[in-house]
Protein 1
Amino acid sequence: MTKAGLIKFRNDFLDHDITYSFLHSPATIIAALVTLVMFVMAFGAPLFTSYTPFDPGSLNLMDAFIPPAWEDGGTALHVMGTDGQGRDIFAAILYGTQVSLTVGLLSVLLSIGIGIPLGIIAGYSGGWVDTVIMRIADIQLTIPPILIALMIDGITRTSISRDLHEVVAIPVLVASIGIASWPQYARITRSGTLVERNKDYIAAAKLIRTPVPLILLRHILPNVIGPTLIVATIGVAVAIIIEATLSFLGVGVPPTTPSLGTLIRIGNSFLFSGEWWITFFPALTLVILVLSVNLIGDWLRDTFNPKLR
């Protein structure tokens, strides 16, 4: 690409409505930077800490209950202090954020993978197919997602051994949250499909006898997926909260696996004995992460809202 082409690309990028909206929203810029930093530090945890939490071989009980570095008795080796078993809180937060982000992203991908196809099929087919799919979605929407996740986790716990459950706990948690959250994506996709199926280009595709699966994939899907992906951004924050809640209740990830919910639950036992840092820093991380993702989702929703165009 020539220098003139690069300059034109740069100018077009900066003049784009989305870029303009992003650069003129300080809250969104800060939220994006915070989310990016947390994502990089979580998945690059070994680069930022030499400690490996929840590894019994690396723990030293003599390091238990060390306060943060700025308090009396604190040390620079453990900036945020340690818990009752000598785990470094900062390292535990990094690895816990990694687990929470993984569960949140994968569960939303599963919800989208279920909801979008069902929504497109319901909206395009109509009739009894639409009725059956939407009534199932309506029934599921009356049940809080956390209760559905608790039910699936409970069935799994009674069906397999405890050791096997600890191995598959995270996949089960992802499946529980994903299955509990698909109806909202199906409803949004169905609404867009109802609009698109009556347009001329769909009639033209039918006229030349284009197979229905190709119509759904080539024509319907690209035109209805945008609003769904915007909602999915906020869905990631919701999934992280659900994971943290389940882990706090002791039915999420195993106690030997760090997650923000597990760390908060562990620290809650020491909250009133003076070791406030054990639960405070994981809880603060959860609040900042969820708030940042929500702010990005709100910006996407406002930017791509057709009524604002």
Note: The chain has twelve helices and no strands.
Protein 2
Amino acid sequence: MSYLDQITSPTLLIDEKITRTNIKRMADKAAAQGKKLVPHWKTAQSNQIGNWAKDYGIREVTASSIKLAEYLCGQGWDTIHIAFPFNIREIKKLDTLAVNQSLSVQIVSPVTAQKLADQLTQPVGFFIEIDAGYGRTGVHVSDFGTIEEILRIAKSTDKLKFRGFYLHPGHTYYTPDKKKIYQQSIDALIMLKTKYSSEFPDLVTRLGDTPGCAVMEEFGDVDELGPGNFVFFDLMQAELGSCSKEDIAVCLAVPVVDINRERGEILVHGGGVHLAKDVLLDSSGNKNFGEVVSLLEKGWSLLPERSYLKSISQEHGIVKASSTLLNQVQIGDLIGILPIHSCMTADCMGGYLSLDGKWIDHAEGCQ
């Protein structure tokens, strides 16, 4: 039976071949420069896809929350890092998980460091998150007072082990000059490693975001790379130049429920609860919530003429359709939508259907 025959409602499809190619390409890039690839699993959130990653030598992974870390525990990862400023209300949960799984957390405040030092009964590693220009979170790269206070607190206990410095230059998503941002980030990490390596000779530096890791060819003396979205990519990454549309590994299959040929529009069952509401603007200022592709027995293919999701509500999506697409589809057919933001789409859908008709797990609950 074709995988298409299983679909009655919006369903997130995954192409294993493309996914594996994306993982291997990034793993090869890291290995060629002697870097360790520690992917951020906030995109895939899947144990099965994690097993694919292990086929390419990936042994450590990053989670976006303690909930995701708990889901990934017991799957053979050497260490799971929680790359979010640690929430001290979750210390008890962290302590419980650390009994059987090597874990590390992200610290940006001496208050958090002290609470961990006071309450942990199990050893946990930590990175100090550094802000070198993004401005979202982290200790400013020049704030040595805060860095050293966190390190002083960690030294007071055998339950906190300093692993190094973590930097996420997320402003590569908004600035054309990604190389400049990356060089600034690399320079910041090198400076910190030079300053503290005599006291902490085993410390490592980790840098990661998909736009930068995808386009950069040199990463200097940074030890580890931690991108996430590269596993699937999406239209946002294609817009940023991180990938081509052919590299996008997930696609939302949606049923056609009505066709308005006068307006050149197709109504689909697929909206914000399936795709989230990330949007791109085209050169004419039109909103684009996803691009239409043809669904085939072995996957999907780009259309010769662009058709796109022009608007979405909770369950509805309206496709601005080319004349060719209008002439091809009928009510009840399935069409595919390449997502603007694959991380959010996967989180919304909570599971994947492979092209061989098998369901693949997701932390939010496989169908």
Note: The mean pLDDT is 94.
